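Action item from last week, closing it out:
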Amino acid sequence: MISPVRKMFDGIAHRYDFLNHALSLFRDVAWRRACCRSLKKRVAQDACVLDLCGGTGDFVITYENLVGTPKLALVGDFSFGMLLKVNGKTTVPALQIDAMSMPFQNGTFDVVLNGFGMRNLPDARKGLEETFRVLAPRGYFVTLEFFSPENIFNKFFYGILAPFFIPIVGALFSGKKEAYEYLVNSVLHFLKVTEYAAMAREVGFEVVYVKACDFGIAYRVLLSKPLQKGAIS
């Protein structure tokens, strides 16, 4: 049975890229670029890269443009409608997968990218644990996400501005107002970025950095997997 969230993403796939860019005033493009630039001196050219919860593939495309073409790249997402949009944008293969139970061996990937996908998982901790499993030692997990508000600016943005204009603009261009109401509610009910970083440490990750994007509308979180769980590198 298709979950309501997956069905929702299938239904907005045709306008997903346009609305992502429009609602963020193209800041989502800059945020992905900043994530990838931070990997450029950290990651080998022959890396294996997974764009997890990858939607239409924008994150891995940005990675290829700024870091270089990896030895292996995949876009993985639970929405088949989203994955259909990958074809024509990039030659990177697209695979329908569950982020909490991935069909990959331990240590398969050197880099896992995740743009705006962690808060859509039923269990963020399980998603972190599964990402830790498929990541190679000294590999990197990049999270770009809207986290539950912590400071005055993002409490105002997500508490007052976003619930008003995001559903209206989303309904205007996609005809799916409820999908963009879900977007706002999913942010408000997700973890705070400090809670997410603490959970990642509990799983075994080292937190390389946590950086606010545009006063905390979104955050970039770079995690690394040590050689041994619990080891200090």
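Closing note: The domain at 9-224 is CATH 3.40.50.150 (Rossmann fold).
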